[in-house]
Amino acid sequence: MHMKSAQLDIVLVNNETGEKSPAPLYMTYNHHHALMLGPHEDLMKLYNYTKDHDPLDPTSFPNQTKKHHMHRGCMMKRRSFEALLTAALPQGRRSQVAAFGGASGAEYRGTSTKLAGRYTYAVDSPDSFMVLMHFINTYGAPESQKLWECPCTSARKIDVKNGTIDGQKPIPFSCSQQLIDEKNTACSLATYEGGYRCCEHGVFLTEGPHPAGPLQQIEAKFTFEFYEPDAPEVKTARPTMQPSCCDATGGYLSNSSYFANLEYDIPQCSPGTPPEQCEHVISSVEYFDVPSSNSSDPNEEFELVHAWGHQHVGGNGLELYKDSTGELLCRSHPKYGTGEQAGDEKGFVVGIPPCVWGPPPLPAPPRFRRHDHVRTVARYNDTWSDGRDTDRCDKPRATRGTSSRSATCTRRAGLAVLTARGSGGVHIGPAC
Protein backbone atom coordinates (compact mmCIF):
# COMPACT_ATOMS: atom_id res chain seq x y z
CA MET A 1 0.00 0.00 0.00
CA HIS A 2 1.17 3.51 -0.78
CA MET A 3 0.15 6.09 1.82
CA LYS A 4 0.27 9.84 1.38
CA SER A 5 -0.27 10.83 5.02
CA ALA A 6 -1.04 9.53 8.51
CA GLN A 7 -2.46 11.73 11.28
CA LEU A 8 -3.42 11.15 14.92
CA ASP A 9 -5.87 13.16 17.00
CA ILE A 10 -7.29 12.52 20.46
CA VAL A 11 -11.06 12.75 20.71
CA LEU A 12 -13.21 13.10 23.81
CA VAL A 13 -16.31 10.88 24.01
CA ASN A 14 -19.41 12.35 25.69
CA ASN A 15 -20.48 9.76 28.28
CA GLU A 16 -24.16 10.65 27.85
CA THR A 17 -24.61 11.19 24.13
CA GLY A 18 -21.65 9.31 22.69
CA GLU A 19 -20.76 12.40 20.68
CA LYS A 20 -17.07 12.70 19.83
CA SER A 21 -15.08 15.92 19.66
CA PRO A 22 -11.36 16.79 19.59
CA ALA A 23 -9.89 16.80 23.10
CA PRO A 24 -8.06 20.01 24.05
CA LEU A 25 -4.47 19.68 25.19
CA TYR A 26 -5.34 20.95 28.66
CA MET A 27 -7.37 17.75 29.12
CA THR A 28 -5.20 15.11 27.45
CA TYR A 29 -1.71 15.60 26.07
CA ASN A 30 -0.11 13.33 23.48
CA HIS A 31 3.51 13.11 24.65
CA HIS A 32 4.42 10.81 21.76
CA HIS A 33 3.16 7.80 19.88
CA ALA A 34 4.42 5.14 17.52
CA LEU A 35 2.40 3.29 14.92
CA MET A 36 3.34 -0.01 13.28
CA LEU A 37 1.54 -1.46 10.26
CA GLY A 38 1.98 -4.83 8.64
CA PRO A 39 0.71 -8.40 8.33
CA HIS A 40 -1.59 -9.47 11.17
CA GLU A 41 0.54 -12.51 11.98
CA ASP A 42 3.70 -10.44 12.44
CA LEU A 43 2.01 -7.75 14.52
CA MET A 44 0.50 -10.40 16.79
CA LYS A 45 4.00 -11.74 17.38
CA LEU A 46 5.17 -8.23 18.20
CA TYR A 47 2.20 -7.70 20.52
CA ASN A 48 2.71 -10.95 22.40
CA TYR A 49 6.45 -10.37 22.59
CA THR A 50 6.02 -6.90 24.05
CA LYS A 51 3.13 -7.67 26.39
CA ASP A 52 3.67 -6.02 29.79
CA HIS A 53 6.91 -4.45 28.58
CA ASP A 54 8.02 -1.30 26.85
CA PRO A 55 7.66 -2.37 23.20
CA LEU A 56 10.56 -0.19 22.08
CA ASP A 57 12.90 -1.43 24.81
CA PRO A 58 14.21 -4.94 24.08
CA THR A 59 16.42 -4.73 27.19
CA SER A 60 13.32 -4.81 29.43
CA PHE A 61 12.28 -8.30 28.38
CA PRO A 62 12.58 -11.57 30.34
CA ASN A 63 15.95 -12.47 28.85
CA GLN A 64 17.33 -9.15 30.05
CA THR A 65 17.55 -7.58 33.48
CA LYS A 66 14.96 -4.88 34.14
CA LYS A 67 17.56 -3.03 36.17
CA HIS A 68 19.09 -2.05 32.85
CA HIS A 69 15.87 -0.65 31.46
CA MET A 70 16.78 1.73 28.65
CA HIS A 71 13.55 3.70 28.17
CA ARG A 72 13.74 3.43 24.41
CA GLY A 73 9.98 3.85 24.18
CA CYS A 74 10.65 7.57 24.34
CA MET A 75 13.77 7.44 22.23
CA MET A 76 11.97 8.37 19.00
CA LYS A 77 14.75 6.91 16.86
CA ARG A 78 14.51 4.58 13.90
CA ARG A 79 16.97 2.22 15.57
CA SER A 80 14.51 1.62 18.43
CA PHE A 81 12.05 0.06 15.98
CA GLU A 82 14.80 -1.89 14.27
CA ALA A 83 15.98 -3.33 17.59
CA LEU A 84 12.43 -4.42 18.40
CA LEU A 85 11.93 -6.11 15.04
CA THR A 86 15.31 -7.83 15.28
CA ALA A 87 14.41 -9.23 18.68
CA ALA A 88 10.86 -10.31 17.86
CA LEU A 89 10.73 -11.39 14.21
CA PRO A 90 12.78 -13.63 11.90
CA GLN A 91 14.93 -11.74 9.43
CA GLY A 92 12.74 -12.49 6.45
CA ARG A 93 9.67 -10.93 8.08
CA ARG A 94 11.09 -7.66 9.41
CA SER A 95 10.77 -5.72 6.17
CA GLN A 96 7.02 -6.41 6.14
CA VAL A 97 6.42 -4.10 9.11
CA ALA A 98 6.55 -0.32 8.68
CA ALA A 99 6.62 2.13 11.57
CA PHE A 100 5.64 5.78 11.91
CA GLY A 101 5.59 8.33 14.67
CA GLY A 102 8.06 8.08 17.54
CA ALA A 103 8.72 11.78 18.03
CA SER A 104 5.19 12.65 16.97
CA GLY A 105 3.34 14.31 19.83
CA ALA A 106 0.78 17.03 20.41
CA GLU A 107 3.08 19.57 18.73
CA TYR A 108 2.31 17.90 15.39
CA ARG A 109 -1.47 17.83 15.59
CA GLY A 110 -1.67 20.73 13.15
CA THR A 111 1.27 19.56 11.05
CA SER A 112 0.66 17.98 7.67
CA THR A 113 2.53 14.74 7.00
CA LYS A 114 1.35 14.61 3.40
CA LEU A 115 4.10 13.97 0.88
CA ALA A 116 4.15 15.90 -2.38
CA GLY A 117 4.02 14.60 -5.92
CA ARG A 118 4.68 10.90 -6.40
CA TYR A 119 6.36 10.40 -3.01
CA THR A 120 4.64 7.95 -0.68
CA TYR A 121 5.03 5.99 2.54
CA ALA A 122 5.17 2.35 1.42
CA VAL A 123 3.63 -0.37 3.59
CA ASP A 124 3.69 -4.04 2.67
CA SER A 125 0.53 -6.02 3.49
CA PRO A 126 -1.05 -3.59 6.01
CA ASP A 127 -3.52 -6.10 7.44
CA SER A 128 -3.35 -4.65 10.97
CA PHE A 129 -1.75 -1.91 12.99
CA MET A 130 -0.26 -1.76 16.48
CA VAL A 131 0.09 1.45 18.46
CA LEU A 132 2.28 2.63 21.32
CA MET A 133 0.63 5.70 22.90
CA HIS A 134 2.08 7.88 25.63
CA PHE A 135 -0.73 10.18 26.76
CA ILE A 136 -0.70 12.45 29.82
CA ASN A 137 -3.81 13.35 31.79
CA THR A 138 -3.77 17.14 32.03
CA TYR A 139 -7.37 17.58 33.23
CA GLY A 140 -7.70 20.26 35.91
CA ALA A 141 -4.07 21.30 35.75
CA PRO A 142 -3.25 24.95 36.53
CA GLU A 143 -2.43 26.88 33.38
CA SER A 144 0.85 28.04 34.89
CA GLN A 145 2.25 24.49 34.85
CA LYS A 146 3.57 22.45 31.94
CA LEU A 147 2.93 18.76 32.38
CA TRP A 148 4.66 17.56 29.21
CA GLU A 149 8.00 18.39 30.82
CA CYS A 150 7.51 15.36 33.08
CA PRO A 151 8.89 16.58 36.43
CA CYS A 152 10.73 14.19 38.72
CA THR A 153 8.50 14.45 41.82
CA SER A 154 9.52 13.38 45.32
CA ALA A 155 7.93 9.99 44.57
CA ARG A 156 10.75 9.22 42.13
CA LYS A 157 13.59 7.45 43.88
CA ILE A 158 16.71 8.87 42.26
CA ASP A 159 19.89 7.08 43.37
CA VAL A 160 22.83 8.98 41.95
CA LYS A 161 25.38 6.54 43.40
CA ASN A 162 23.80 3.53 41.70
CA GLY A 163 22.66 5.52 38.68
CA THR A 164 19.00 4.52 38.95
CA ILE A 165 15.51 6.02 38.95
CA ASP A 166 13.02 3.87 40.86
CA GLY A 167 15.58 1.07 40.91
CA GLN A 168 16.06 1.03 37.14
CA LYS A 169 18.90 2.44 35.10
CA PRO A 170 17.61 5.11 32.72
CA ILE A 171 19.08 5.47 29.29
CA PRO A 172 22.58 6.96 29.62
CA PHE A 173 22.96 10.71 29.41
CA SER A 174 24.54 11.55 26.06
CA CYS A 175 24.74 15.32 25.70
CA SER A 176 26.78 17.13 23.11
CA GLN A 177 30.04 18.74 24.12
CA GLN A 178 28.33 22.14 23.97
CA LEU A 179 25.73 21.14 26.57
CA ILE A 180 28.40 19.48 28.73
CA ASP A 181 30.52 22.65 28.63
CA GLU A 182 27.46 24.69 29.59
CA LYS A 183 26.87 22.28 32.51
CA ASN A 184 23.32 21.71 31.34
CA THR A 185 21.32 20.18 34.18
CA ALA A 186 19.67 17.61 31.88
CA CYS A 187 23.02 15.94 31.19
CA SER A 188 23.48 14.21 34.53
CA LEU A 189 21.37 12.23 36.96
CA ALA A 190 22.85 14.29 39.79
CA THR A 191 21.21 17.44 38.43
CA TYR A 192 18.26 15.92 36.57
CA GLU A 193 14.94 17.60 37.41
CA GLY A 194 12.57 16.20 34.84
CA GLY A 195 12.03 14.81 31.38
CA TYR A 196 11.20 11.52 29.71
CA ARG A 197 13.39 9.58 32.16
CA CYS A 198 10.80 10.44 34.85
CA CYS A 199 7.80 9.82 32.59
CA GLU A 200 7.24 6.06 32.64
CA HIS A 201 3.86 4.36 32.33
CA GLY A 202 1.62 4.95 35.36
CA VAL A 203 3.85 7.60 36.93
CA PHE A 204 2.13 10.57 38.60
CA LEU A 205 3.68 13.87 37.61
CA THR A 206 2.52 15.81 40.65
CA GLU A 207 3.07 15.57 44.36
CA GLY A 208 0.33 13.56 46.11
CA PRO A 209 -2.38 13.05 47.07
CA HIS A 210 -3.99 12.12 43.75
CA PRO A 211 -7.77 12.26 44.17
CA ALA A 212 -9.90 10.49 41.60
CA GLY A 213 -11.23 12.77 38.90
CA PRO A 214 -14.35 12.43 36.78
CA LEU A 215 -14.51 9.43 34.49
CA GLN A 216 -13.54 10.44 30.97
CA GLN A 217 -13.37 8.41 27.82
CA ILE A 218 -10.89 9.35 25.12
CA GLU A 219 -10.07 7.68 21.84
CA ALA A 220 -7.12 7.88 19.50
CA LYS A 221 -8.31 8.73 16.01
CA PHE A 222 -6.04 7.83 13.12
CA THR A 223 -6.64 9.19 9.64
CA PHE A 224 -4.86 7.61 6.68
CA GLU A 225 -4.71 8.90 3.13
CA PHE A 226 -3.65 6.26 0.62
CA TYR A 227 -3.97 5.04 -2.95
CA GLU A 228 -6.14 2.06 -3.78
CA PRO A 229 -4.07 -0.83 -5.23
CA ASP A 230 -5.46 -0.29 -8.72
CA ALA A 231 -5.01 3.50 -8.69
CA PRO A 232 -2.89 4.77 -11.63
CA GLU A 233 -0.68 6.69 -9.16
CA VAL A 234 0.65 3.42 -7.76
CA LYS A 235 2.55 2.67 -10.97
CA THR A 236 4.66 5.81 -10.64
CA ALA A 237 4.79 6.05 -6.83
CA ARG A 238 8.20 6.73 -5.29
CA PRO A 239 8.46 5.15 -1.79
CA THR A 240 10.42 7.00 0.88
CA MET A 241 12.37 6.17 4.04
CA GLN A 242 13.41 8.11 7.11
CA PRO A 243 17.12 8.81 7.68
CA SER A 244 18.66 8.49 11.13
CA CYS A 245 19.46 12.16 11.81
CA CYS A 246 18.87 14.75 13.36
CA ASP A 247 19.10 15.69 17.05
CA ALA A 248 20.45 19.03 18.25
CA THR A 249 21.51 17.55 21.62
CA GLY A 250 24.23 15.36 20.18
CA GLY A 251 25.65 14.13 16.92
CA TYR A 252 27.64 11.22 15.63
CA LEU A 253 30.53 13.52 14.80
CA SER A 254 30.69 15.23 18.20
CA ASN A 255 29.49 12.44 20.48
CA SER A 256 30.26 8.74 20.29
CA SER A 257 26.99 7.66 21.90
CA TYR A 258 24.54 5.69 19.78
CA PHE A 259 21.67 7.94 20.82
CA ALA A 260 21.90 11.60 21.69
CA ASN A 261 20.24 13.04 24.80
CA LEU A 262 17.04 14.15 23.01
CA GLU A 263 16.21 16.68 25.72
CA TYR A 264 17.94 19.53 27.51
CA ASP A 265 17.16 22.32 29.95
CA ILE A 266 16.90 25.97 28.94
CA PRO A 267 18.89 28.13 31.38
CA GLN A 268 17.44 31.43 32.53
CA CYS A 269 18.52 34.48 30.60
CA SER A 270 21.00 36.64 32.52
CA PRO A 271 19.34 39.48 34.49
CA GLY A 272 19.26 42.76 32.62
CA THR A 273 19.53 41.18 29.17
CA PRO A 274 17.14 42.79 26.66
CA PRO A 275 14.29 40.36 25.91
CA GLU A 276 15.05 40.35 22.19
CA GLN A 277 18.53 38.98 23.00
CA CYS A 278 17.29 36.23 25.31
CA GLU A 279 17.70 33.28 23.01
CA HIS A 280 19.41 29.99 23.83
CA VAL A 281 20.94 28.25 20.82
CA ILE A 282 22.47 24.79 20.43
CA SER A 283 23.61 22.94 17.34
CA SER A 284 25.00 19.60 16.29
CA VAL A 285 26.48 18.01 13.19
CA GLU A 286 25.53 14.46 12.16
CA TYR A 287 25.66 12.12 9.22
CA PHE A 288 22.54 12.37 7.09
CA ASP A 289 21.95 8.67 7.66
CA VAL A 290 23.75 5.93 9.58
CA PRO A 291 22.88 2.69 7.79
CA SER A 292 21.27 -0.21 9.59
CA SER A 293 23.72 -2.63 8.03
CA ASN A 294 27.43 -2.56 7.30
CA SER A 295 26.57 -3.62 3.76
CA SER A 296 24.83 -0.31 3.05
CA ASP A 297 26.59 2.00 0.64
CA PRO A 298 27.75 5.18 2.45
CA ASN A 299 27.70 7.02 -0.88
CA GLU A 300 24.14 6.10 -1.77
CA GLU A 301 22.23 9.23 -2.80
CA PHE A 302 18.92 10.48 -1.42
CA GLU A 303 16.47 13.26 -2.12
CA LEU A 304 15.14 15.13 0.92
CA VAL A 305 11.39 15.54 0.34
CA HIS A 306 9.84 16.41 3.72
CA ALA A 307 11.18 17.84 7.01
CA TRP A 308 10.02 19.66 10.11
CA GLY A 309 11.33 20.53 13.54
CA HIS A 310 10.25 19.16 16.91
CA GLN A 311 10.09 21.81 19.61
CA HIS A 312 8.03 22.59 22.69
CA VAL A 313 6.73 25.82 24.22
CA GLY A 314 9.35 28.55 23.98
CA GLY A 315 10.74 27.30 20.69
CA ASN A 316 11.82 30.07 18.34
CA GLY A 317 12.52 27.72 15.46
CA LEU A 318 14.74 24.94 14.24
CA GLU A 319 17.05 25.06 11.23
CA LEU A 320 18.66 22.38 9.10
CA TYR A 321 21.81 23.11 7.07
CA LYS A 322 23.99 21.20 4.65
CA ASP A 323 27.17 21.53 6.65
CA SER A 324 29.64 21.39 3.77
CA THR A 325 28.13 24.42 2.02
CA GLY A 326 26.23 26.23 4.78
CA GLU A 327 23.08 26.00 2.67
CA LEU A 328 19.90 26.47 4.69
CA LEU A 329 17.65 23.54 3.86
CA CYS A 330 14.73 24.05 6.22
CA ARG A 331 13.64 26.56 8.83
CA SER A 332 10.54 25.65 10.86
CA HIS A 333 8.71 27.80 13.40
CA PRO A 334 6.24 26.45 15.98
CA LYS A 335 2.69 27.71 15.76
CA TYR A 336 1.17 28.77 19.10
CA GLY A 337 -2.47 28.65 20.10
CA THR A 338 -4.31 31.79 21.12
CA GLY A 339 -7.71 30.55 22.32
CA GLU A 340 -9.44 27.74 24.17
CA GLN A 341 -10.76 25.52 21.40
CA ALA A 342 -9.04 22.22 20.59
CA GLY A 343 -6.37 22.95 18.01
CA ASP A 344 -5.90 26.54 19.19
CA GLU A 345 -5.07 26.18 22.90
CA LYS A 346 -3.38 29.27 24.30
CA GLY A 347 0.09 28.59 25.58
CA PHE A 348 0.54 25.35 23.63
CA VAL A 349 2.40 24.55 20.44
CA VAL A 350 -0.42 23.49 18.11
CA GLY A 351 1.53 22.80 14.93
CA ILE A 352 4.93 22.98 13.27
CA PRO A 353 4.60 23.66 9.52
CA PRO A 354 6.91 21.40 7.48
CA CYS A 355 9.33 22.09 4.68
CA VAL A 356 8.17 20.25 1.55
CA TRP A 357 10.01 19.55 -1.71
CA GLY A 358 8.69 18.02 -4.90
CA PRO A 359 7.63 18.82 -8.45
CA PRO A 360 7.09 22.46 -9.56
CA PRO A 361 6.01 24.85 -8.22
CA LEU A 362 7.65 23.32 -5.12
CA PRO A 363 11.43 23.62 -4.79
CA ALA A 364 13.44 20.68 -6.11
CA PRO A 365 14.50 18.18 -3.42
CA PRO A 366 18.09 18.68 -2.19
CA ARG A 367 20.30 15.65 -2.71
CA PHE A 368 22.51 13.93 -0.15
CA ARG A 369 24.86 11.03 0.16
CA ARG A 370 24.31 8.86 3.18
CA HIS A 371 27.45 10.13 4.94
CA ASP A 372 27.03 13.80 4.11
CA HIS A 373 27.04 16.04 7.16
CA VAL A 374 23.99 18.02 8.22
CA ARG A 375 23.78 20.63 10.97
CA THR A 376 20.75 21.08 13.22
CA VAL A 377 20.28 24.39 15.06
CA ALA A 378 17.62 24.73 17.79
CA ARG A 379 16.56 28.12 19.14
CA TYR A 380 14.56 28.80 22.32
CA ASN A 381 13.45 31.99 24.04
CA ASP A 382 14.89 31.86 27.56
CA THR A 383 13.12 34.76 29.26
CA TRP A 384 10.90 34.44 32.31
CA SER A 385 7.96 36.42 30.95
CA ASP A 386 4.51 34.90 30.53
CA GLY A 387 4.13 35.61 26.82
CA ARG A 388 2.77 32.71 24.81
CA ASP A 389 5.88 32.46 22.66
CA THR A 390 8.41 32.58 25.47
CA ASP A 391 10.33 29.80 27.12
CA ARG A 392 9.08 29.95 30.67
CA CYS A 393 11.24 28.34 33.34
CA ASP A 394 8.32 27.47 35.55
CA LYS A 395 6.88 24.36 37.15
CA PRO A 396 5.61 21.62 34.81
CA ARG A 397 1.87 21.17 34.39
CA ALA A 398 0.24 18.88 36.96
CA THR A 399 -2.42 16.20 36.76
CA ARG A 400 -3.90 16.88 40.20
CA GLY A 401 -3.10 19.36 42.95
CA THR A 402 -0.14 21.68 42.94
CA SER A 403 3.47 20.63 42.69
CA SER A 404 5.63 22.00 45.46
CA ARG A 405 8.76 21.42 43.45
CA SER A 406 10.39 24.60 42.15
CA ALA A 407 11.85 24.13 38.70
CA THR A 408 14.76 26.15 37.38
CA CYS A 409 14.39 25.31 33.72
CA THR A 410 12.10 23.76 31.16
CA ARG A 411 12.75 20.58 29.23
CA ARG A 412 13.10 20.96 25.51
CA ALA A 413 13.42 18.82 22.43
CA GLY A 414 15.43 19.76 19.37
CA LEU A 415 14.82 17.27 16.59
CA ALA A 416 14.42 17.49 12.86
CA VAL A 417 12.14 14.84 11.39
CA LEU A 418 13.10 13.99 7.83
CA THR A 419 11.69 11.89 5.00
CA ALA A 420 13.91 10.99 2.07
CA ARG A 421 13.75 9.12 -1.21
CA GLY A 422 16.69 6.95 -2.22
CA SER A 423 18.18 7.02 -5.67
CA GLY A 424 17.16 3.42 -6.20
CA GLY A 425 16.49 0.14 -4.47
CA VAL A 426 16.06 1.59 -1.01
CA HIS A 427 14.76 -0.79 1.64
CA ILE A 428 11.53 0.65 3.01
CA GLY A 429 11.50 -0.59 6.56
CA PRO A 430 10.72 0.77 9.99
CA ALA A 431 11.13 4.49 10.40
CA CYS A 432 10.66 6.38 13.62
Automatic annotation (TrEMBL):
Residues 385-397 have a biased composition (Basic and acidic residues). Residues 385-406 are annotated as: Disordered. Pfam families: SURNod19. InterPro entries: Stress_up-reg_Nod19. This is Uncharacterized protein. It comes from Durusdinium trenchii. The lineage of its organism: Eukaryota, Sar, Alveolata, Dinophyceae, Suessiales.
